[in-house]
């Protein structure tokens, strides 16, 4: 486990430099400087668990610190810049990118530069006997090593590579482990802690003026001016949340129990806090009393009138919340992006109140926004992940930064998250999945997933000849909009409803499904009905490809669709738009309505047995590999 | 004669235009029509049964051709043919018994017949035995002529009899017709009361506090659930709405009116909900001889989900839904595609549909099938008005109701055309 922990520290470099937002002049320095502190932070990170859990890797700290810092300060900024031109072809994403992604040349160029820097740094650190960087090099840099990375990524799973790297790592670390005893390690840790506390105190004094002086380059100046001590001080301040005992961290990893709405006392408490007035629990289905009742758009005027009472609320967040409430904004990615952008606006307009620190106050502020959004509509898993990312970024902000710098850092972090985790991830997924489409295929999709739509359009652009079966179901009827867009692009489509799935499945050769989230037991949490589609496809021996960005993976586990779900508007069930003849339920009298309930589930959980492959931005993986991705990936983005 | 002709044509039109909803109504009307056909048929003095069969078959072929998907029509036609054969058989058997009795009273010997051919007497004896008693080892071992030869021998028997007793003959011919009409009346009665008979078994299957799932609407299911409710069982029903016809709304309303706690869900939520369901109870459109079910669209999905969660999948089917045919590619051959307008608004998509673009192949197809085929392995139990049966037993049950001669009725009809 220690190998993982350390490996996470290193790929940050790649992750950060991978694709920056479109302003080349300003951004490379911050990203690099950002990547710096965590790297120097990595020894303590790797060590604190090591001392507690007897992990296989143990690195003598003195040598480590000096090697690492020396190697980094000398290697990273100077040769990285100098070699950028030479290494132009090394960036593995390049060729494919310029051909396939149709990006602007400047953009791809930047990424290329970053990449070469990454590789360069990686080599350096490697040569500097930075043993811990090895596994990450094996795993995370796998695309970098191979120029034809697209083919490589598609051809093989990243996992075997990783296991190789692990073996390598294990063999490397064995002698190291033999050297240190437990007592030694403890002593080391103690001394380190003491040193860090001291340096932190020092840094707090020394770095504040440096930080205030530089407004343009956000984190680099203090680091450069002060040299190693300042860097370590930054690391130390960042480390605050990290060097807890491992068990505690584990516990923190565990997702908190969700609010159960059948718990009367807690619901009462929540009601008192809430902005919206909760609809009375009218005739709710017994099985689903633990879920929050649906709030429909009828609350909109009430909420609008209440806007000026909510002075804490930022208008952008407010707007997004209202859009959630009315259902104007739907779809996992769209909701997540809208939320992040609203948060970015809010952060831009934020100013720290006197006698408060930015880290804490902004976190609580974001928490307030989030609880408002939850009131409008329960969060999706992906949004939860994004919020976790943002909060961890805020708490990890160096204290040394001035407010404007911190805000700029956070904004660029948010932009980067949107870009890397959603926009670029989608493009990678599209290219992976398109290789699975052959001429003459009949592809089935359910509902309306934006990734699946992109896949179809991309394959169509590539000139592949295939047919699409769009399966739809009430009450959302999202498939009709998808159908509209696909037909407009000239794809040949067949439209049917979910009930006829057994009828159309005979001719189908592939099933492409989107997902709202994927749990770590391989369960796919998606639009209700997806499970039925996957089940029928499984029964007919048709492969099922689930396309999902890795940021939507979640470490929760779930076996059925009832323990956790979201309730939709029950009245949408009783009315069938466009069918005046279906109005049987209009004439019920009130007394009868008591024994009559309407249930509008929004999601369901597809068991992993029905899924052939999950297409994600890390390649195509079997559902059993989801926990691996969650583990590797979550740390990575929390630490970026 | 013209009277029935008009009736037949009227019914044919209704079938062709799919005016008749539900297999029970169709079966009932078919039986009534055939009854009037039988009563109008002028029976010759000889070979009455053959004449009746002939006329029923002629009408039946046309009815089946009018709506080959509505299997209840064919089932009823076959049932009526079977009834005619049986009645004829029992009549001749009774006649033979009378002859035999006289022969026996004459001399205590076996029925070698003083004035009758030996073959025909033996055949009639065998036939009478096979209808009145279960086949014994003796009859199986004897070299008995085929069952199918019975109408012929009986008519020959009637022939020979006709020579001797002309007075009895007219009464017998009237009696055959009368008996057949009686039996058809019984059949109609059976069809219209099949709900009650099935519903009587409800308490044996539904227990306290159970959760039942059903899809779409079926009168049989409604009666079944209500019967259990009347027996003071309290349970909860989930009704999937059954797009695109949304008959589930109707069923939910009916159930609510009778005071059953009912929850209406979308079809897509079936998989999500089925893990909390104790039993799936559905109606069927037709039950094939292999135990497969032709059911409203969507049920195959439900059956698969039920199998995944090991939930019993119970099909309620009146006896008129049992079809003696074996399905071949039933998803296509025994299916019917309805109008796309049930799924899409024409106004919205009319430019993309088949007639819109005008250039090359149309971009958009809409598939809206009516039925699903549920293979026998997904069905846990059939409940018919004669009790519960396994899918693997259906072929035997069907053999009781239909005569083997009539199974090819439809094929003959198609080859004749």
From TrEMBL, chain A:
Gene3D superfamilies registered for this protein in UniProt: Translation initiation factor eif-2b, domain 2 (3.40.50.10470)
Bias kind Basic and acidic residues: ranges: 240-266
Protein's recorded name: Translation initiation factor eIF2B subunit delta
Residues annotated as signal peptide: none
Matching Pfam families: IF-2B
Biased composition (Low complexity): 194-207
SUPFAM superfamilies found in the cross-reference section: NagB/RpiA/CoA transferase-like
Region (Disordered): 1-96, 153-278
InterPro entries: IF-2B-related, IF_2B-like_C, NagB/RpiA_transferase-like
Compositional bias of kind Polar residues: 32-55
Stated family: Belongs to the eIF-2B alpha/beta/delta subunits family.
UniProtKB/TrEMBL annotation, chain B:
Coiled coil: none
Gene3D superfamilies per record: Translation initiation factor eif-2b, domain 2 (3.40.50.10470)
One Pfam family here: IF-2B
Biased composition (Basic and acidic residues): 160-171
One MF annotation (Gene Ontology) recorded for this entry: guanyl-nucleotide exchange factor activity
Localization, UniProt: Cytoplasm, Cytosol
GO CC terms of this entry: cytosol; eukaryotic translation initiation factor 2B complex
Keywords: Cytoplasm, Initiation factor, Protein biosynthesis
Keyword Transferase: no
Sequence segments annotated as region (Disordered): 148-175
Family: Belongs to the eIF-2B alpha/beta/delta subunits family.
Subunit structure: Component of the translation initiation factor 2B (eIF2B) complex which is a heterodecamer of two sets of five different subunits: alpha, beta, gamma, delta and epsilon. Subunits alpha, beta and delta comprise a regulatory subcomplex and subunits epsilon and gamma comprise a catalytic subcomplex. Within the complex, the hexameric regulatory complex resides at the center, with the two heterodimeric catalytic subcomplexes bound on opposite sides.
The name this protein goes by in its record: Translation initiation factor eIF2B subunit beta
Species whose genome carries this gene: Hibiscus syriacus (Rose of Sharon)
């Amino acid at each position: 486990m220690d190998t993982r922990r350390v490996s996470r520290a290193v790929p940050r470099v790649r992750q950060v430099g991978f694709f920056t937002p479109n302003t080349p002049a300003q951004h490379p320095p911050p990203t690099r400087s950002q990547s710096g502190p965590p790297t120097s932070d990595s020894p303590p990170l790797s060590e604190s668990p090591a001392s507690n859990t007897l992990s296989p890797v143990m690195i003598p700290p003195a040598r480590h610190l000096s090697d690492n810092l020396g190697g980094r300060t000398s290697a990273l900024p100077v040769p990285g810049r100098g070699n950028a031109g030479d290494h132009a072809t090394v960036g593995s994403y390049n060729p494919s990118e310029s051909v396939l992604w149709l990006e602007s040349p400047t953009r791809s160029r930047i990424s290329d530069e970053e990449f070469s820097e990454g590789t360069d740094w990686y080599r350096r650190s490697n040569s500097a006997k930075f043993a811990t960087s090895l596994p990450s090099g094996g795993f995370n840099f796998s695309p970098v090593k191979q120029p034809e990375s697209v083919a490589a990524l598609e051809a093989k799973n990243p996992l075997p590579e990783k296991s190789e790297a692990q073996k390598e790592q294990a063999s490397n670390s064995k002698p190291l482990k033999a050297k240190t005893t437990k007592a030694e390690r403890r002593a080391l840790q103690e001394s380190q802690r003491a040193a860090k506390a001291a340096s932190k105190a020092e840094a707090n004094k020394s770095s504040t003026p440096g930080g205030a002086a530089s407004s343009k380059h956000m984190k680099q100046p203090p680091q450069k001016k002060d040299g190693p001590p300042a860097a370590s001080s930054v690391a130390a301040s960042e480390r605050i949340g990290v060097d807890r005992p491992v068990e505690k961290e584990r516990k923190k990893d565990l997702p908190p129990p969700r609010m159960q709405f059948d718990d009367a006392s807690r619901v009462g408490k929540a009601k008192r806090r809430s902005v919206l007035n909760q609809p009375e629990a009218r005739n709710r289905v017994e099985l689903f009393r633990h879920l929050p009742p649906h709030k429909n758009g009828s609350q909109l005027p009430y909420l609008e009138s209440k806007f000026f009472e909510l002075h804490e609320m930022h208008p952008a967040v407010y707007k997004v919340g209202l859009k959630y409430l009315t259902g104007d904004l739907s779809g996992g990615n769209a909701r997540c992006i809208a939320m992040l952008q609203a948060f970015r606006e809010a952060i831009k307009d934020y100013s720290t109140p006197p006698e408060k620190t930015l880290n804490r106050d902004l976190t609580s502020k974001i928490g307030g926004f989030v609880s408002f959004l939850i009131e409008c509509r329960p969060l999706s898993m992906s949004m939860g992940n994004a919020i976790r990312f943002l909060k961890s970024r805020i708490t990890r902000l160096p204290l040394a930064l001035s407010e404007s710098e911190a805000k700029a850092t956070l904004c660029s972090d948010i932009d980067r998250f949107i870009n890397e985790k959603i926009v670029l991830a989608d493009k990678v997924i599209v290219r992976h999945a398109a290789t699975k489409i052959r001429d003459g295929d009949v592809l089935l999709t359910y509902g309306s997933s934006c990734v699946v739509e992109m896949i179809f359009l991309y394959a169509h652009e590539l000139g592949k000849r295939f047919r699409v079966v769009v399966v739809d179901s009430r009450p959302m009827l999202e498939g009709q909009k998808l159908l509209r867009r696909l037909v407009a692009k000239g794809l040949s489509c067949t439209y049917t409803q979910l009930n006829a799935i057994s009828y159309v499945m005979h001719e189908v050769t592939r099933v492409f499904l989107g997902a709202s989230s994927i749990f770590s037991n391989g369960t796919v949490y998606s639009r209700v009905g997806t499970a039925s589609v996957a089940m029928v496809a499984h029964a007919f021996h048709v492969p099922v490809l689930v396309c999902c960005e890795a940021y939507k993976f979640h470490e929760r586990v779930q076996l059925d669709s009832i323990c956790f779900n979201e309730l939709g508007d029950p009245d949408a069930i009783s009315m069938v738009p466009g069918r005046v003849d279906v109005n049987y339920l209009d004439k019920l009298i009130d007394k009868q309505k008591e024994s009559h309930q309407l249930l509008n589930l929004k999601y369901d959980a597809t068991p992993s047995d029905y899924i052939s492959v999950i297409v994600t931005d890390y390649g195509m993986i079997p559902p059993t590999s989801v926990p691996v991705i969650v583990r590797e990936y979550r740390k990575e983005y929390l630490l970026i | 004669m013209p009277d029935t002709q008009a009736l037949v044509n009227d019914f044919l039109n209704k079938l062709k235009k799919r005016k008749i909803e539900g297999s029970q109504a169709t079966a009932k009307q078919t039986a009534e029509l055939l009854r009037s056909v039988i009563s109008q048929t002028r029976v010759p003095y000889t070979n009455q049964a053959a004449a009746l069969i002939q006329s029923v078959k002629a009408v039946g072929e046309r009815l089946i051709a009018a709506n080959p998907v509505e299997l209840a029509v064919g089932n009823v036609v076959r049932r009526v043919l079977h009834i005619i054969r049986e009645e004829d058989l029992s009549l001749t058997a009774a006649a033979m018994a009378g002859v035999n009795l006289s022969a026996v009273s004459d001399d205590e010997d076996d029925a070698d017949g003083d004035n009758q051919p030996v073959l025909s007497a033996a055949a009639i004896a065998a036939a009478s035995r096979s209808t009145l008693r279960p086949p014994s080892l003796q009859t199986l071992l004897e070299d008995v002529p085929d069952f199918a030869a019975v109408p012929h021998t009986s008519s020959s028997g009637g022939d020979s009899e006709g020579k001797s007793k002309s007075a009895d003959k007219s009464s017998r011919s009237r009696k055959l017709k009368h008996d057949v009409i009686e039996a058809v009346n019984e059949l109609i009665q059976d069809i219209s009361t099949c709900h009650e008979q099935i519903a009587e078994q409800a308490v044996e299957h539904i227990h306290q506090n159970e959760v039942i799932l059903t899809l779409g609407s079926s009168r049989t299911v409604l009666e079944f659930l209500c019967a259990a409710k009347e027996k003071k069982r309290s349970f909860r029903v989930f009704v999937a709405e059954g797009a695109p016809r949304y008959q589930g709304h109707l069923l939910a309303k009916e159930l609510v009116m009778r005071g059953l706690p009912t929850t209406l869900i979308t079809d897509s939520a079936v998989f999500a909900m089925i893990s909390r369901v104790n039993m799936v109870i559905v109606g069927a459109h037709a039950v094939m001889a292999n135990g497969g079910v032709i059911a409203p669209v969507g049920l195959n999905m439900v059956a698969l989900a039920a199998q995944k969660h090991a939930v019993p999948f119970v099909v309620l089917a009146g006896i008129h839904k049992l079809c003696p045919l074996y399905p071949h590619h039933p998803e296509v051959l025994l299916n019917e595609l309805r109008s796309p307008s049930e799924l899409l608004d024409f106004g919205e998509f009319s430019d993309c549909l088949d007639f819109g673009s005008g250039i090359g192949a149309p971009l958009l197809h809409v598939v809206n099938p009516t039925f699903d085929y549920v293979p026998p392995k997904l069905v846990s139990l059939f409940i018919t008005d004669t009790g519960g049966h396994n899918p693997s037993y259906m072929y035997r049950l069907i053999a009781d109701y239909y005569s083997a001669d009539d199974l090819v009725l439809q094929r003959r009809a198609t080859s004749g055309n």
